[in-house]
Amino acid sequence: MTDSNTPWWKTATGYQIYPRSFCDSNGDGIGDIPGIVSRLDHLADLGIGFVWLSPVYASPMRDNGYDIADYYAIAPEFGTLDDFDALVAEAAARQIRIVMDLVVNHCSSDHTWFRKACESRDCPEHEYFYWRDPRPDGSPPDDQRACFGGSAWHWVPAIGRYCYCHFGPQQPDLNWHNPALRTEIYNMMNWWLDRGIGGFRMDVIELVGKDIDARHYYEGPDMHRFIQEMHRECLAGRDIVTIGESWSVTPGTALDYCGRDRGELNMVFSFNHIQAAWDPAKGRFGPNLFDLPTHKKILADWQSALAEDGWNSLYLSNHDLPRPVSHYADDGVHRVRSAKMLAAVTYLMKGTPFIFQGEEIGMTNARFERLDQFQDIETLGQFREVMAAGGSVEEFLAGANANARDHARTPVQWTADTWAGFSTSEPWMALNPNYREINVAADRADPDGVFAWYRKLVRLRRALPVVVEGTFEMLLPEHPSVLCYVRTLGPTRLLVLGSYSADPVTLPPAALPEGNWDLLLTNVGDIAHVAIPTSLPPFFAGVWLDVSARKTTPTRQAAESALPS
Length: 565
Ligand code: ISL
Ligand code: CA
What we know:
CATH class of the largest domain: Alpha Beta
Strand content: 15-25%
CATH superfamily of the largest domain: Glycosidases
Distance between the termini: 21 Å
Helix content: 25-40%
Radius of gyration: 24 Å
Number of domains: 3
Bound molecules: 6-O-alpha-D-glucopyranosyl-D-fructose, calcium ion
Strand order of the largest sheet: 11-10-9-5-2-1-13-12
Number of helices: 18
Oligomer: single chain
Shape: globular
């Protein structure tokens, strides 16, 4: 086991819940908090240590909760504050913490702050937002575009000014340069932290320090100053975890956010490995350009940058991303093997794993044939942008089918029953038709299923200090279809190997390091205790322990105790 002063969030595994699509308890077709409580045993069986709970605050749900109208209330469709407190207590009874989503770069235009701000220029709330006068011809102050399409400037006739909205027209950016606004945010954060939550995932925290006149939005001049103030006012001295989402952070800037002496955050969610597969011009709606050597280089750079300080988050999936088996490997004949391979190579690196709901049973992308099947504000907004720029419906549909955020938001498939055990009535979003074959009940009934594999990986992390503390070395960096690395802690070495190829791959015998490698886990049959094969079946994965360490440390026994037959 790792030593006692290792923070809990380094040995724990995280699990992200998108509440609208997780589990519906009252038959309205919308996931809710009591539905989450009813599935906590599933999460406890998986062995996760905390949940990242996407927003459950009161919201008009134009961005499914990432547009908050009241930071102190629970959205009625998700439940009540009592339901939330019950979730925190029931999760704690299973040694699971609840980490909330902090969305404070912007709020909803339904928030009373914005309603007051639109009534008068003189009320204090007016300066909680960024306002600019129109140009002489009445047009917006500049041509900045919003993430979800259209101008980033929203005209408010009653005030005769434009308000800055980085995402959607009903998501006005909060003016973090106003100390009164920051005080409102810190008070709210402390109110939730005092309620016993386990920390925060911070939505687009990179944007809070923006200078809109200089059009410097990402990692703006005041971002670190504000995060350090937030740390002093809310985070310091608490046994919590904080993870900041940043689309612009790089290995070169990561330690500015999560270096141990920075007084800011514990981790960041970076997207370098995600955006490397995006078309530079078309972004997520272009073709999938995934390339394994590029992917490996990025992951290795992040492992190296945070090897001695800071801490990595390890993920392939979240509520904004396509399903990994569909995006990186095979969601057909080799779906189960692919799900296992991707999990092994991703989650045994140095850092904290984040499993996204449904990933633990290998859920796949849906098949959207028509535009009206998409519901996400970004998909629909970007469709309008592409059409206005003369793009083709077919091309956009192809890109959206590969990479739209909607794929992650189809309801979790619990059983093969009507509505997949997600609800007793038609869900808010269509189920993936493959729920009859791919569901929690069926997968968990299979001792060789995806869930069983994830469960073993989570336990391996807890049982083997080399997984949490070991160094990382990427092997075969240029190999086009094999990801292989070794973790080392003193005499203990763990070797992880995965093939991304749909065809068999032959490795040169000298490709792998010397060692007395004993097989711990493989996704192809039960090749017990053989050396590393040089001929790899499609989407093969294997994890080996160098048993020459066996004589000196109880790692083998620890590993076996973590890997029940
Ligand atoms: O791809 C994107 C940016 O290039 C967008 O999906 C999104 O703006 C980005 O991922 C930031 O996401 C976060 O903030 C958004 C919210 O819609 C996302 O769900 C959240 O994860 C605004 O709050
Ligand atoms: Ca419900």
